[in-house]
Amino acid sequence: MYSSLTSTEKSNEFNGKIILVDTYTDIDYIKKNFQNNDSTIIAFDYESHQKLLNENIIHELSDTYINDAQCKSLQNYVYKFAFWFLENEFSNFLEYRKINLGSLYQDELINYFVRFLKKFKEIEIIYSKNPNKQFFAQNELFNIIIYFSSSSKNIYKSKNNSELFTPEKIRFSFSLFGHQQNFFLNKDLYMKLKNLQDIFTNLLFKPKLLDNKKTNVLFVEYNTERYKELFLKSMDFNTQIFYYGPKRPPFWNTNTFKTILNSKCKIITNQFLHKSNKSEIPISQIRSNIQKLLNKNSSLENFFLFENHSIFDLIKPKLIELLENRLSFMLNEIELANHMLEKFQFDYTVIINESSFYEKIISILSDTHKIKCIHMQEGFHWDTDDSIKNTSSQGVFLQYAKKLTVWGEIDKNLSIDKAKTDSSLVEIIGAPRYDNLFQSTSKNSDYILLASSGDPQPEEIEGLRTKKIEKYLNDVLQISKIVSNMNEKLVIKLHPSSTQLLEIFHLAPKINQQIDVIPTGEIIPLLSSAKLLICIGLSSALVEALILKKPVLYMPGIDYNWGTPSIVTENGCFVTDIDNLKNELNKILNDKKYVHEQQNLSQIFLSKLISFQGNSSKKFYEFLKNI
Questions:
Q1: Contact, 74 vs 461, CB < 8 A?
Q2: Cis bond before residue 456 (omega within 30° of 0)
Q3: Residue of 11, 27, 306 whose CA lies nearest to 144
C-alpha cells in the first residue's frame, strides 16, 4: 500500500525533499504528490528518465553525481563482488559434483552489482550534499537511502521481488497488416513453450545409445542456423552428432529442421533424461551447507566491504534468491546433465562459452566423466587491454574445457598474451559459422545498412549512464538524417540483445518513412544486398560485411573506456564519427579508388582474424581426430 504522509513529514523539519526514482518507481504517485517547489526528483536510470520526460516532470540525473574515475572504481568492485563464490572461505559450502553453485549465475550477479553499486555510490554522494533534505524512495532505492538517512520515507513497498535480478527476456517480432510489432516473452513463458516443443522433438529425434564405431560429439546450446555447415560436415567424418539445448530450440524454421534431418543429428531433451534418471539429490544437505554459509555474517560482511561500507545486509536477499530459491532447479539440471554424460559417454562435448548456465555445467561434468570438452570461439570480441576483464567475465576464454578453438592469429594471441592461456591449449580452426558465407556471392546493392551493436551493455557501469545512452540513440537518429538527406535508402538492423533501445524502431521512421527498421533475425541476408555497412559499436556484423567484401564504416558506440579495437588499429575498415560522417559517406560512395584501397587492407585484416576461410568445419573435425 501507499504510505500516507504524516504531520511530522509535512513539517518544516527538513529543508526540502528529494525523491529518488528508478524504473520500478510508480511515476503516477510521484506526479500526484511531489511536483512542488521544495521537491527535487532524481532519476537513476534511462527508463525512469524517459518516463519522467514523457510526463513533463522536471528532474535531475543521478549520473551527474559521479565521474569517470568513480565509475572505473565501481566496475572493479563489481568484478570483486560478483566472483565472491571463488573465495576459499565460501566455495566449500557451494560445491556439488565439483560445480560451484554460485558460479552458475555469475552473469546475473555482474548485472546486479553494476546496477546496485552505481545506485549506492550515487545515493551516498547525493546524501552527503543534501544532509538537511528529507528523502523519499521505494524498493531498492529506499533500502539504500535508509542506510544513510534513517528519516527517509518509503513511499511504496512492492509485494514482489522484481528488483532481485533483471528478468531475462527474449524478443520476438511479427508483422500484422504491414506493421511490424515487437514483444518480449519472459523466461518462464518461453521455457513452457520450449518444453512443448521438446515433447514433439522426443517423438521424432529420440536418441539411441552410441555407435562405438563413430566419433560421438555433443553440441551444447548451438544455433543450428549459424552452424549449419558444421552440423552437415559431420557426415563426411564418420561422426554422430548430438544436440543438447535446454534453453535454445534445435530448430525453429524449415531450414534449421532440414539441418537436423540432413545431419542425422540426435536431440537430447530434459524430458527424455527425466524418464530414465533415477538419481536422488541430497538437497537437504546442500541447503544446510548454504544456510551455514549465509550465516557466516562476519566473514561475508568483511568481504562485501564497499569502500567504508559493509553492504552485506543489503545484498543478502539477492544471494538467498540465487542460492536458496533456485537451489532445487540448479541441482535438478546438474543431475540431468550428469545422467546424460553418464548414459552416453560422448567422445567430445562442444560449447561456445564458459559463463552461461548449461555450458558451465557441461564443461565441468565432462572432465568428471573423462570426456574432452572443446570450447569453440563464437563471436567477434573486443581485444584491448582495458576490455579484458569484461571479455573474461563473458566466458570467452578457457576455464574448464580442455581446448579452446579460435578463428585465427588475432584471437590466439588475445587468449595467450592477455588471458594468459597456455599456448598448447589454443588451436586455430577458423570460424565454422561463416563457412557458407565465405562461399556465397553478394547480390545487387541498393541500400545502406546501419547495424546497431549490443549497447548498452548491462554488465558495465558505463552502459547504465543515461547521457551515454542518449548520445548513442541520438547518433543513430543523426545517422538516419544524414543518410536520408543524401537521398540514400536506409535499412536499420537492431541487435538481438534484449537491452537494445527499441526507441530506434519507432523514432527512425519519423525522420523518413522510407527507413526500414528490422528488429529480429539474422543480419547476413540484409548485408548481402547492402551497398555498404555502417556499424555503430563493435559487432560481428563488421566481420560478416568484410567477408562479403562490402565497404565497412565503423563508428564508436557507447564509450566504455576500453580503448581502440584491432579492427581500427590494423586498418580493417573505414572509421569515422558523427561530425565527419557525411563527408566519409560521400567519399565511399563516389571514390572507387578510395574504397578499393581500403578493401585490400580489410582483406589483410580478415586473413589475420579468420584462418581456413570457408573450410573451418572440415578443419574442426580433422582437429578432433588428432587430439
A1: yes
A2: yes
A3: 306
Cα 464 from chain centroid? 14
User: Which residues, 6+ apart, have CB-to-CB distance to 606 below 8 Å?
Assistant: 543, 546, 547, 572, 613
In contact, 480 and 513? CB cutoff 8 Å? no
Per residue in 103-154, pLDDT tens?
A: 999 999 999 999 999 999 999 999 999 999 999 999 999 999 999 999 999 9
In the beta sheet, which residues pair with residue 405?
Answer: 376, 427
**Cα–chain center distance at 60:** 29
Which 3 state secondary structure label does DSSP give 373? strand
Query: Is residue 221 pLDDT above 60, yes or no?
Result: yes
Q: How far is CA 466 from the centre of its chain?
A: 19
Report the share of the chain in percent with pLDDT over 70.
91
| Long-range interactions of 106-110: CB distance < 8 A, separation 24+ | 106/82, 106/355, 106/393, 107/355, 107/356, 107/393, 107/394, 107/459, 108/165, 108/166, 108/322, 109/81, 109/82, 109/322, 110/78, 110/79, 110/82, 110/393, 110/459
Parallel, antiparallel, or unpaired for β 17-21 and 447-452? unpaired
Note the pTM of the prediction, 2 decimals: 0.91
Distance CA 416, CA 69 (A): 29
Please report, as a single letter, which amino acid is at residue 154.
N
Least confident of 132-136, 168-172, 173-177, 572-576: 173-177
The string of pLDDT tens digits covering residues 328-346 is 999 999 999 999 999 998 9
pLDDT at 375: 98
User: Directed axis angle between helix 68-82 and helix 106-129, to 10°?
Assistant: 140
Beta strands in 223-308 (DSSP E): 239-244, 266-268, 305-306
Length of the chain: 627
Distance between CA 400 and CA 492 in Å, rounded?
39
* Edge-to-edge strand list for the sheet holding 530-536: 516-518, 490-493, 447-452, 530-536, 552-555, 574-575
Q: Give CA–CA dist 250/222, Å, rounded.
A: 8
Contact in structure between 510 and 518 (CB atoms under 8 Å): no
Residue pair 287/324 in contact by the 8 Å Cβ criterion = yes
- Give 482-541 pLDDT, tens digit per residue: 999 999 999 999 887 756 566 787 788 888 888 988 888 889 999 999 999 999 999 999
Strand 266-268 with 60-61, pairing = unpaired
